[in-house]
Amino acid sequence: MKKKVLIAISVIIILLFIIYNVGFQFGNFTIGKQYDNIEHKSKFDIENSNFSKKYLQNDDLSVINLWASWCKPCLEEMPTFVKLKNDFPNVKFATMSIDKDEKKLSKSIDANNLTDDITLENSEYRKAIRNFLDNRELKSLITTEIVPITYIIKNKKIVYKTTGTIDYNEISSKLNALK
Prior knowledge:
Elements: H1 2-22, E1 24-26, E2 29-31, H2 50-55, E3 62-67, H3 72-87, E4 92-97, H4 102-111, H5 126-133, E5 149-154, E6 157-163, H6 168-178
Protein name: Thioredoxin domain-containing protein
Pfam family, one: Thioredoxin
Keywords: Cytochrome c-type biogenesis, Disulfide bond, Membrane, Redox-active center, Transmembrane, Transmembrane helix
């Protein structure tokens, strides 16, 4: 009797482990590991990535904004971000979504007309880029999903970081001071 109970408990534990690590999805209901088709492609060596080539290879200023399609303050600050981009043509600007679902992200980009004035960075190096921005090892797990966050980069270093909706005057004064 005890042997049957131990076998049953062992089988249940193994099944739970498999479900948790593999995951199943029934419509909008997900059990176990989330389907993450963006981060699934992540790479950790960003030195040869387009992100590194565009925003880290020289002493130009770069402004990177993390956002999400489900984040109302993120979407509300996009016009401010576009204004900063237009007012500082010598600074490189880009946004990077933390969305894990490419289809929802694509719908949000189209619905909010974000493709014209904003450079969108959602590369296969996304996880490594986020770890770089937060000064973690490039292979670290990302445990927080706080947005919006804006970073100013100069000489491959984060020289300014602000969490929350950006303020035009604050960011423009920082950019002017760093020129």
